[in-house]
Amino acid sequence: MKNIIIASTSTIHGSTYLEYLLETLETFFANAKTILFIPYARPGGISHDAYTAIAQKGLSKINKTVKSIHEFENPIEAIEQAEGIFVGGGNTFVLTYQLYKNNLITPIQNAVKSGTPYLGTSAGSNICGLTIKTTNDMPIVYPPSFNALALVPFNINPHYLDPDPTSKHMGETRETRINEFHHYNTPPVIGLREGSWLHVNESSIILNGPLTARIFEHNKTPYEVNPGTQLNHLN
Amino acid sequence: MKNIIIASTSTIHGSTYLEYLLETLETFFANAKTILFIPYARPGGISHDAYTAIAQKGLSKINKTVKSIHEFENPIEAIEQAEGIFVGGGNTFVLTYQLYKNNLITPIQNAVKSGTPYLGTSAGSNICGLTIKTTNDMPIVYPPSFNALALVPFNINPHYLDPDPTSKHMGETRETRINEFHHYNTPPVIGLREGSWLHVNESSIILNGPLTARIFEHNKTPYEVNPGTQLNHLN
After folding, report:
1. Domains and CATH numbers, chain B
2. Between helices A105-113 and A92-101, what is the axis angle to 10°?
3. B135–A139: do the CB atoms touch at under 8 Å?
């Protein structure tokens, strides 16, 4: 019954919040009038209220009401009763910290298993993987674990960025970082470029959007896959 | 008695390993014939032996012998007896994990307090700060704490990178990330560009190299400081 959208980003360059996904979301959230928003990742440190207003503005274009988890007295009940869940981007460490603090890991896993549609963007997508060990974010808070929701049997690298051959900067490229990950961990990593998303539907995992994605498997040369590719064999 | 060089990077574009620092290091390590190398950060996941060979090649130009901590049976004794310490770059999480695993945090702090010169580059500089919460690295292993050596009373962001006004990438800029850090933490952060280093000499902390550094203080607008600036008031 799993039904998940794992999007690299909420916003692509030159367009408004969630705009490129709205047509897809209209179908995806067809049976949900109200979407439970999880604002914990706080992009730029903004308040939960301010972030919720952004999500509401984006989703009002497809006539959804957004209610944020911080407005509920009991966040676990909020998850259990949600018609649809949207976890927005921001800082993955802050998001993970808050999910553990509010004991929401298992409730979200159970809700998704029982069919509640889950939309994640950026940090909200990162936590769909096995761990947050392939986040690009700064570790500004210390979460009790790097283990994430494990809704898919691999890791996500959102905002995947190709190496810039003209750069004189000596910091690591994204590919170098993911290769380093594989010195200590074996799960595959999907590098999702901005504009790409995975649609998980029960046991099917399909790459969507106009771009290829880069797949990093342990002890293999990284390779590209085209939109429409079935990725459920990766684990 | 503290004597520390905190360098943004080991290597600047178009030059060899440590080359831009060698003149400085000749004076800095004047009383050390043998340098104790700490290869734990394993850049690109290379072996301790391979990394030690790179450090040896760099420092042989100023006639230093490099011995790596992984060659000692007792790493704590290695620290206590070192004439000089060099902690190389790589992954800050891997480095921090290994320092805790080998119980080296306190021995290194004590050695530095008693006057052993300490050179850090990149990850080896990051850990000189209060925490590793302003690293750029991917969290590929889970360390028991984000607390670092606290040899200086602020945090370091090595490889500091200015925002690229032409970029269409929607991932956070470095400045955005450090500002997010300050939503959850109060210590100042020094953004050290490649080619810059801090020289800590007892209570003096001076910016060196050809470039300005960017200083981020809690609840203040970030600002630039020139080479030669005394930074010991930051805390």
Report:
1. 3-225 (3.40.50.880)
2. 90
3. yes
